[in-house]
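Lay summary

Proteins are chains of building blocks that fold into shapes. Our project writes down both the chain and a compact code for its shape. Here are two examples, one after the other.
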Amino acid sequence: MSLPETLADDPVVPTPVREPRVWKFWGTSLWGLLIFVALFLGQASTIAILLVLQKEPLNLSTFADSLTHVATGGKALSLSVMTGLPAVLFAIWVATKLARQRFTDYLALNRPSWKGLLIGVVSLAVLVEGWDLLSKATGREVSPGFMMDTLKAAQADNSLWLLILAIVVAAPITEEFFVRGFLYRGWSESFLRIPGAIILSSAVWTLMHLQYDWFFLGEVFSIGLLLGYLRYRSNSTWLTIVIHGLNNLAATIQTIWLASHS
């Protein structure tokens, strides 16, 4: 039995394949806002859980005091940083999935070279030492007061190890995936191009550290510019994660040393 003539003559139309895309300026900006909201909700969930689990019963008259007490504790600060990571990972995964891209490709999770790592470490050391010298020359504290207060809070509730894990591992991964990974990728392929993407992503990263005063915000911004440049030159977000983590580790060790000699 042969097919009807009309069916036999009809050509097979292939299903169109949707090409991968990169979120440009507005797409990256809107997704960036959603990712930041996910980060906030992930961190706030930890505070809410600890607030409910505390021994004192909650009531409206003491809620503000209870919230302040819990939120400023070393354990809460550490856990909130760590729980922000899966929230950010999930939000970025959704954004890259809708862009029909592999998560690792979109965020440039490529293995850095040893030369790139060496350049990054030396550049960071020179930059941070310059800021430390400027801080001493102007009679300022080398370590931010927020870092010292956080360290003392962690020591008070025996969660120093958890704080170090959060600052040195969780925070760099969260922030670099978001800023130098997702934001830089989309903005660098928009009208901003690479210089604009480095500057704008560094500004966003600086705004994520408003717990510091203007002097340390200037240092954060300059480190952001360095990390952005390293991201551009190496095409590796893992490199910026490692450099970011080393910076946080050095700052933590410095703060512990200053606290022990104060």
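And here is the second example, written the same way.
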Amino acid sequence: MKKPNGIRSVSLPAPAKINLFLAVSGIRNDGFHEIFSVLAKLELHDIISIEAIPQENHLIFECVGNKQLNGVDNLVEQAVHVWREHTNVTQGFRIILDKRIPIEAGLGGGSSDAVAALIGLNSFLQDPLSFDALHSLSLMLGSDCPSFLISGLCLVKGRGEEVSLIDGVVSDDLKEKEVLLFKPPIGFSTPEIYSQLARSGAYSRSDQSLELFFEWSKGRVSTEDFLFNDLQKAVFLKHLYFAPLFKKINSEFGLKSLLTGSGSCCFCLGKKGICWEDVKRVIQKAWGEDTYLLQTRFEANPKQSNLFS
């Protein structure tokens, strides 16, 4: 049994992500899809606050900003359960989630929240769990959860369990770029989008993905030319309003737009001289005043979480 260390409360950010590159090469023997993806974390984040309470095995969870997440099936509560099962710690907790990342957007908010909860709970232990132990617990919560154990830019392979930090020229280049997020007033189900892709059978070749990644990582392919998402094929077939807007943004401003993950959030990267207000007006004219719009940047310090440095 792990022992508590006397800490009474912690608070930490749970960042959103975008997929700069997402190739799906088929279905694995375990039923999951084989992916090859480059993820970048953003300054947009939720806040997880955890407080120790006297009642053993008790959990109070509250979500500020999205009350529909106040249920037993949310990933933060699942994270507490798997952590307790692994550590045998009976300490009670009150957790408050300040929700700022849109849901069903492909921004990874739920997974990021769950991993932030694991990292926060880990700080309550005299002998904290190792990175490998937290990696195993995070994978139990979802295929994309392990990627949130590493901040900044990372390469994700397999079903999502193979995660490695990307550093160097491309990482430094992204630090200088702004990101515009835009999302229609609806959300998408990730399993549904993957099912649509499976029905089409329009998968990428893993060798081509690896070659393109290598060229980009060496600075021989620009980030805009590297941007790619296999799931756009499935989304565009059903939701016909994406492609015309992407084309208009490109023709008027020279910006390439991309769906992030399974959507419905999209993004484009800034460049010198761009006026975001003009871009926003075009997006709102196409998708309406309820469109989610946010200017943000990539996470400032793309290093592995300092809990494991």
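What can we say about the second shape? Residues 16 and 109 are 6 Å apart (CA to CA).
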